[in-house]
Amino acid sequence: MSLEHFDVLVVGAGLSGIGAGVHLQTHCPGKTWAILEARDTIGGTWDLFRYPGIRSDSDMFTLGYSFKPWTAAKSIADGPSILEYVRQTAREHDVDRHIRFRHKVVRASWSGDDARWTVEAECGEARETRRYTCRFLYMCSGYYRYDAGYMPDFPGAGDFGGQLTHPQHWPENLDYAGKRVVVIGSGATAVTLVPAMAGTAAHVTMLQRSPTYVLTLPGEDRIAGALRKVLPERAVYALTRSKNVLMSLAFYTVCRRYPGFAKKLLRKGIAAQLPADYPIDEHFRPRYNPWDQRLCFVPDADLFKAVRRGQADIVTDHVERFTPDGIRLKSGRELAADIVVSATGLQLLAFGGMQIRVDGEDVNLARTMSYKGMMLSGVPNFAYCIGYTNASWTLKADLASQYVCRIIARLDRNGGGYAVPHNDDPSVGEEPLIDFSSGYVQRAIESFPKQGSKAPWKLHQNYIKDLITLRYGTLEDSGMRFVAGRDDTAAAAEAA
Ligand SMILES: Cc1cc2nc3c(=O)[nH]c(=O)nc-3n(C[C@H](O)[C@H](O)[C@H](O)COP(=O)(O)OP(=O)(O)OC[C@H]3O[C@@H](n4cnc5c(N)ncnc54)[C@H](O)[C@@H]3O)c2cc1C
């Protein structure tokens, strides 16, 4: 039976997959392509998460696509506005008609003889299997499990008389008005939820095991606001995007090179927001250096405002067990609660859990090495999109998609065939793909591909370096093999 064939298959219709569609349309006209999406809607993360206050924690001038200006006043934007931005992009660029919804990709098998992938998806409620073939497979499937967030096994959770919930599965009609809420966690989600629920809830407590670095940012970009009065929207976007790239890179570099100085600066910023007698070191002095874990941004100091108003507080302690009325802490203190939100994070998952086979052999992802942060050693005509940990996701997503288009054009010039990263340099050491010390990374990173200790295997986490390498750098380097296609081989044989 002949299977439906595409030049390119993209997996995932989130921010990255929709962007990939636009890049393919623009840079690879004439190619056939489709997006396979497990869910029944566009948007990925920005549709899945529905908790109060859901918002970006990086600015929309860099979280937005390179080709579509973010025109709203808010620079740190709410989830529904980001979702609408992604959907609008899909509509405007006619990407939506290329999406096959309710297609969960479970397996992809590469055949070197045919130079193509066979991609297997489970479709709809009945999980009927459908197969497609493609020349190039591009994974835009995010980096975490969609069906379950991470919920620790809290002792006594079953005894709790109130409601225990996770932000990834927010109950649609959860009424927290006048209720006592405890949010367990100290990451971006907890820092978003606490001010969003404060004021409506009777009281919100953020219960953290250990502190996180927190930095206040203005919710609106004043420079962009001023530029809008005199410049067209595209110019405002380009200038503000460049400014934000440079500022975040400079801030990150200072934090990594001068951690002592950065710690003082961050502490000063927090002290300016809280009463003089507030125990800052107890609740806001992490044990690690800035950017050993992701830094949390607080727009317009909303978290601190809620604390100052007495609507919220922060407790740094450990859960000993749940009780019928709330949580007993290791210090002996009891926190009474009607609702407990376990903002304890994600479960990382590579490539949506898909099984990958190359010429009949299962690929053990943990034994592959990431090439330029977007392809894998030994896996032909395959790319993936995972954004930066220290800057906006889309900066990398745009570069990765453009690079995929360059590879596809190069393959065309080669008469088809395939591109496969290959490491034969014994001096390249192995390092974890993400070098964060955060629990959610440490729990899963062993099962992810590795990165190498030097280029082209090293992840720069640096937009400017990647811009030079991925947009303007050569496609031919020591790590990449282009294998000629049949057309080319036949032509060479004829010529001989
Ligand atoms: C709450 C939250 C807030 C965030 N805020 C920011 C931020 O402010 N700035 C930032 O830079 N990053 C942020 N991130 C990271 C964020 O995930 C990215 O910004 C971005 O949304 C990722 O887009 P994506 O399309 O790559 O992945 P996702 O949004 O995860 O979308 C992946 C899509 O692939 C589909 N899929 C997965 N597996 C399969 C499969 N096997 N078959 C078919 N389809 C599949 C999923 O259903 C989904 O639709 C945040 C993440 C979370 C969870």
TrEMBL record:
Entry keyword annotation includes rRNA-binding: no
Main location: membrane
Protein's cellular compartments: Cell membrane
Cofactor annotation: FAD
Keywords annotated in UniProt: Cell membrane, FAD, Flavoprotein, Membrane, Monooxygenase, NADP, Oxidoreductase
Organism domain of life: Bacteria
Listed InterPro entries: FAD-binding_MO, FAD/NAD-bd_sf, Flavin_mOase-like
A GO CC term assigned to this protein in UniProt: plasma membrane
Database matches in SUPFAM superfamilies: FAD/NAD(P)-binding domain
Keyword Cell membrane: yes
GO molecular function: flavin adenine dinucleotide binding; N,N-dimethylaniline monooxygenase activity; NADP binding
Family affiliation: Belongs to the FAD-binding monooxygenase family.
UniProt-recorded name of the protein: Cation diffusion facilitator CzcD-associated flavoprotein CzcO
Native source species: Sinimarinibacterium flocculans
